[in-house]
Amino acid sequence: MPQFDNELYKEIAENTKEWAEKNGIKISDDASDFVMVSDVVPDAILEIRYYSTFNFLGQRVDGYEEPIALITKEAAAALKEASDEAVSMGYRLKVYDAYRPQKAVAHFVRWALDTHRVQMREYFYPQQKKEHLFPLGFIAERSGHTRGSTIDLTLFDMKENKELDMGGNFDFFGDLSHPAYLNVTEEQYNNRMLLRDLMVKHGFKPLQEEWWHFTLENEPYTDTYFTFPVNSKSVGK
Rounded to the nearest 10 degrees, what angle do helices 102-113 and 6-14 cross at? Predict the structure, then answer.
């Protein structure tokens, strides 16, 4: 089992900018290429988990100042195409997270350092020890979400008025979250593949560890991590 490097993660949490500069990580506060998902994809349902307390931390995450989703213009255009097709099939996209500021990732790190705060373990990581979440790669000190073209989402069935059953919860840390995990029902597996195929068709690439996670194939910022907060003012400048 890899060890949890307390000093490294403490540096990331407390001195994010200095850590980024020292490690050659490009950061930016420029939100000019970002839009609100609801402006471009009005059919999308938003349930921004890190604005709420219903997430693996059990608290609102730093940088999430409004329950909105931000994303690059390029990713938003592709998402609109996916949404339009989903609606034609009787579904709507339901978004859990999109752009994630670097300060949110630093918050994840601070939370991981506090090994006593485990009130959400039973729901999100019952099979894992908290101190193993970073070493095992369930959480990372850099997230594709922070580059602005990654989105976490599911499908909402308009006829049944509920989310499709994916056989596992968003942000569950374990093998159950792998899209190709076979120990689910045929219906649950097919629902995962329906979401994956829809997103891939419209230019997104999936993540093999998370059925809900997709990144624009041709993302405009491949090495830039953004720092502006999730609020409407960020894209209204």
Answer: 140
pLDDT digits (tens, 9 = 90+) for 174-217: 999 999 999 999 999 999 999 999 999 999 999 999 999 999 99
- Phi, psi for residue 215 in degrees, rounded to 5: -125, 135
Q: What is the 3-state secondary structure (H, E, C) of 146-197?
A: HHCCEEEEEEEECCCCEECCCCCCCCCCCHHHCCCCCCCCHHHHHHHHHHHH
Q: What is the DSSP letter of 223?
A: S
For residue 233, how many other CB atoms are within 10 A of its CB? 11
Q: Residue 89: count other Cβ atoms within 10 Å of its Cβ.
A: 11
Helices (H) and strands (E) in the chain, counts: 7, 10
Q: Model-level pTM?
A: 0.91
Model confidence over 70-96: pLDDT tens digits? 999 999 999 999 999 999 999 999 999
Give me the sign of the Cα torsion angle 224, 225, 226, 230.
positive
Biggest CA-to-CA distance, the chain: 52
Topology of the domain covering 6-226 = Muramoyl-pentapeptide Carboxypeptidase; domain 2 (3.30.1380)
**Catalytic positions:** 210
Distance, CA of 1 to chain centre: 25
Q: How far apart are CA 157 and CA 155, in angstroms?
A: 6
**DSSP symbols for 109-123:** HHHHH-TT--TTHHH
Please state, in angstroms and rounded to a whole number, the distance separating the CA atoms of residues 197 and 26: 32
